[in-house]
Amino acid sequence: MEFQFGEKEEKFRSEIREFVKDNFPPDYFGHLFDEEMDDDAWDFAMSISKKLSQKKWLTMSWPEEYGGTGASTWERVVFGEEAGYWGIPGISMGISGTAWVGPSLMLFGTKEQQDKYIPSIAAGEPDGVWCTAYSEPDSGSDLASLQTFAQKEGDEYVINGQKVWTSCAHRARWMWLACRTNAEVTKKHHGLSLFIVDMKSKGLTVNPIKNFVGGHVFNEIFFKDVRVPANNLVGEENKGWAQLMTALSFERGVAITFCGRARRIFDELLCYAKEIDIFYKPEIRQKFADLAMDLEAAKLLAYEAAWKDHMGMTVIHEPSRDKANFDILLEKLTRIGTNMLGAFSQLDPLNKDTRWTRVKGAVEHLYYYCIGMAIAAGTTFTQKTIVGQFGLQQPKSY
Ligand SMILES: Cc1cc2nc3c(=O)[nH]c(=O)nc-3n(C[C@H](O)[C@H](O)[C@H](O)COP(=O)(O)OP(=O)(O)OC[C@H]3O[C@@H](n4cnc5c(N)ncnc54)[C@H](O)[C@@H]3O)c2cc1C
């Protein structure tokens, strides 16, 4: 791997920091899922999406014809790092217009679908907010076993079934849906298809699921004879598995943003340790050194995946490798952070404005959410299975 950030990238980094200074309260640090859970945070996030779009940063890596700037891999890396570090909200357009719905439509969508759905994502408009419905009560890691069925009837599909853990469905305008379109298959990975579903469709019910701290991120979704125009099928009918894997690899490519986020929490913890005068203790230094080494290694791995992409190499298992690595690192950061904060780390993560709050509430927030992050987009075990198969050429697990 050979790279370095040039003058252009460093200038861009300064511009993002200026943007944060101009548009965020001093000392701002947005936490994961704030925007899904809280109406005011959601409105703020959408206002930021709009501003990012006006600066052409929201979808900067997209080609110009789709509302991007064709930014280089390294500019995209800088944006990801800074967005994670400062906790910039509104960068995803739900779950997730920017990271995988738009890019997947560019690869597999029809011209009509591209014209209809991509511009509102790039413009940061409410009409460009998506949710992603893959998981079902009996299909999570074993995603290919999903049963929600879309039956072709004339120029429509009629959908019946249930999805669960659908993040942001209560805010989304559109759903990116994985469905079965053929049940008579010898292999469950065949007979799957991707669809775009209007969240206002008749027969679609979205019920909130409160998470264990009482926040509303997830939903369960019921389909009762939901009619979808046949031209909302994305790509080829029954060939959805390959497209799904591509979309999932976009979803797992979060390492750069996580590098920024973890680095910020590390920096805040370091300030705190100095403030309360414990940094001189050898065991505390050891912990920080340990974390700093892991963070540096994780960053270099994430850079390597970006570099391969930049060089036009096919990146297959690397996003899974980096996601698994971060699942473990975030848990370690949380453990060290809670040890350091003691009882201050056990506050209500939904109530960050108390006189007891330390480190901007980041540690207690991570304490509750790092578990979920190690499950979302495929569990750590699932990521390691992918690394085994595609990175180490082991036999398929199915
Ligand atoms: C924060 C969060 C956000 C989410 N958002 C969405 C969303 O927006 N849309 C959506 O569709 N889904 C979403 N999900 C659901 C998520 O994709 C699933 O929870 C995940 O894929 C795991 O599936 P499961 O819950 O059914 O667990 P299971 O698949 O039942 O797994 C249970 C345990 O068994 C292990 N396991 C399973 N199979 C194997 C195997 N073959 N080898 C070794 N170990 C195995 C798993 O690693 C896990 O530890 C979200 C989940 C979380 C936590």
How would you describe this protein?
The protein is of the alpha+beta class. It folds into three domains: 7-91, Butyryl-Coa Dehydrogenase, subunit A, domain 1 (Orthogonal Bundle); 130-238, Butyryl-CoA Dehydrogenase, subunit A, domain 2; 252-391, Butyryl-CoA Dehydrogenase, subunit A, domain 3. The protein contains twelve helices and eight strands. The chain has a four-stranded mixed β-sheet, covered by helices on one side. Strand 2 and strand 3 (156-163) form a beta hairpin. Helix 5 runs antiparallel to helix 6 and helix 9 packs antiparallel against helix 10. The model has no long low-confidence stretch (mean pLDDT 94). It binds flavin-adenine dinucleotide. Flavin-adenine dinucleotide is lined by residues 95, 132-135, 140-141, 165-167, 372, 375-376, 378-379, 381-382, 397. Residues 95, 132-135, 140-141, 165-167, 372, 375-376, 378-379, 381-382, 397 line the site of flavin-adenine dinucleotide (FAD).
Main CATH class of the largest domain: Mainly Alpha
Domain unit count: 3
Cα-atom radius of gyration: 21 Å
Inertia-based shape: globular
Going across the biggest sheet, name each strand in turn: 1-4-5-8
CATH topology of the largest domain: Butyryl-CoA Dehydrogenase, subunit A, domain 3
Low-pLDDT segments = none
Strand content: 5-15%
The CATH architecture of the largest domain can be given as Up-down Bundle
**Whole-Å distance between the termini?**
33 Å
Can you give the mean pLDDT?
94
